[in-house]
């Protein structure tokens, strides 16, 4: 995409985590290393169940004496309550931000506007908030956490034009990037089936965190049998959760879609059997493709 555009991501919101114990508090809970988080470095991570199943995908960056935790807007209060359960005597504050909006930024030279390198996770303060290169994949553009009332105005003043949500959604789907519970089934999804290792969402050297045992076992025992991947759709787009078939064999499940592209959790055995082609769901046929960044387990 050559033009620089911004999209208000209404499906995302921000939780402010403060207090002197904020770093240690999150360190014991989430899948990535919170010691990496700084004003100039954002990370992608997840909160899991004690059994290692997905609960929330999170982007974390530091602004002043706060960690800004970007998560799903529809579930942000659920996240606050979940984290509150683990506070105990930790000196931590948790507050949903009513004044911060989340924006996706795309286009050639977008990072350079903020004097940022095109490097995943690079961050900087900007206009009372923060802007960072997507810590999963630099090619996914930038994310901006800015004051809701002035964010669009300041972005336009810096050469960005507003774009519809579908522009952002199609781009992230084509890259094979999940968007919260639209693509990751709560209490069921496994991080490594959904690319969190390659997308810098797991640190296997940080030590213990909630759900760490299953995540590590999945990696070291080679237990990944499915992967989230983009699909091209011919026909009516299947609803999320619709089963995919290859001939008569179960081949996976549909996740989110935008127009004629979508994401699906595809069984690797069926993907390899026909190179991703020949999948069917309802009245649609689908062709799955391995994301360029992905590393699939050997056959």
UniProtKB/TrEMBL annotation:
Keywords (A to Z) from UniProt: Methyltransferase, Transferase, Transit peptide
Pfam families hit by this protein: Beta-barrel_CAF17_C (PF25455), GCV_T (PF01571)
Keyword field contains Protease: no
Gene Ontology molecular-function annotations: methyltransferase activity
Domain CAF17 C-terminal residues, every copy: 225-294
Domain of life: Bacteria
Gene Ontology terms describing biological process: iron-sulfur cluster assembly; methylation
Keyword Methyltransferase included in the entry's annotation: yes
Domain GCVT N-terminal stretches: 15-114
Entry-linked NCBIfam families: ygfZ_signature
Protein name: Putative aminomethyltransferase
């Amino acid at each position: 995409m050559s033009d620089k555009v911004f999209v208000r991501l209404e499906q995302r919101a921000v939780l402010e985590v403060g207090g002197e114990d904020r770093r240690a508090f999150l360190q014991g809970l989430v899948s990535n290393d919170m010691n990496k988080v700084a004003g100039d470095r954002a990370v992608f991570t997840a909160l899991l169940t004690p059994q290692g199943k997905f609960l929330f995908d999170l982007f974390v960056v530091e602004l002043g004496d706060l960690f800004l935790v970007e998560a799903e807007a529809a579930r942000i209060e659920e996240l606050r309550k979940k984290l509150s359960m683990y506070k105990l005597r930790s000196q931590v504050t948790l507050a949903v931000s009513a004044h911060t909006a989340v924006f996706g930024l795309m286009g050639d030279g977008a990072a350079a506007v903020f004097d940022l390198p095109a490097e995943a996770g690079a961050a900087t303060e900007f206009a009372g908030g923060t802007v960072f290169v997507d810590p999963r994949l630099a090619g996914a553009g930038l994310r901006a956490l800015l004051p809701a009332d002035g964010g669009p105005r300041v972005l336009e003043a810096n050469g960005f034009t507003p774009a519809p949500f579908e522009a952002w959604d199609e781009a992230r789907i084509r890259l094979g990037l999940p968007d919260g519970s639209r693509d990751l089934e709560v209490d069921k999804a496994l991080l490594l089936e959904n690319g969190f290792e390659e997308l810098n969402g797991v640190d296997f050297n940080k030590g213990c965190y909630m759900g760490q045992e299953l995540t590590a076992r999945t990696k070291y025992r080679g237990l990944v049998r499915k992967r989230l991947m983009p699909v091209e759709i011919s026909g009516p787009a299947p609803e999320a959760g619709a089963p995919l078939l290859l001939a008569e064999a179960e081949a996976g499940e549909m996740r989110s879609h935008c127009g004629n592209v979508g994401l699906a959790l595809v069984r690797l055995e069926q993907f390899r059997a026909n190179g991703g082609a020949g999948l069917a769901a309802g009245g649609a046929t689908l062709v799955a493709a391995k994301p360029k960044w992905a590393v699939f387990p050997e056959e």
